[in-house]
Write a structure and sequence with these properties.
By secondary structure, this protein is α+β, with helices and mostly antiparallel strands. Helices cover 29% and strands 28% of the residues. It has one domain: Ribosomal protein L30/S12 (60s Ribosomal Protein L30, Chain: A), CATH 3.30.1330. The strands form two sheets. The protein has a four-stranded mixed sheet with strand order 3-6-4-5, with helices on both faces. A three-stranded antiparallel sheet has the order 1-2-7, with no helix packed on it. The longest helix has 13 residues. The N terminus and C terminus are likely disordered.
Length: 102
C-alpha cells in the first residue's frame, strides 16, 4: 500500500492517505460533490491557506453548515502536490475511508 504523508499540524496527529485515494480537486467540484454525496461522514475538506478568501468562502460555509472539519494546508502548491497534480489547488476533498490517522 502506497501512502502519502501530509506534513501539517493536525489536532488529531499526522494524517496519511492512500496514494490512489478518491480525491475531488477544486472549489467548484468540491462544492458540487458535497451537495450530491449521500453521506458526508466519509469526507475530509482540505483548503490552502493562501487561496483567495472570496474563492474558498462558499466551500467553507458549506463545510461549516455540514459540521465538517477543514484541514488547512499552507499553500496551494503543497495542496496540489498532495493531490498529485502539477498545479496548485485551492481546495480538495478526500474520502475519509482512505485516510489513516496516526
Amino acid at each position: 500500500m502506497c501512502l502519502i504523508k501530509l506534513s501539517i499540524i493536525n489536532p488529531g496527529g499526522i494524517v496519511m492517505f492512500k496514494k490512489d485515494s478518491k480525491k475531488i480537486i477544486g472549489v467548484k467540484q468540491s462544492i458540487k460533490a458535497l451537495k450530491n454525496l449521500e453521506s458526508l461522514s466519509y469526507v475530509q475538506v482540505y483548503v490552502a491557506r493562501d487561496a483567495a478568501e472570496k474563492v474558498i468562502k462558499p466551500l467553507l460555509e458549506l463545510a461549516q453548515n455540514n459540521t465538517l472539519d477543514v484541514i488547512y494546508i499552507p499553500t496551494m502548491q503543497e495542496l496540489g502536490e498532495i493531490c498529485n497534480i502539477d498545479v496548485g489547488a485551492a481546495a480538495a476533498l478526500i474520502l475519509e475511508n482512505n485516510i489513516i490517522d496516526l
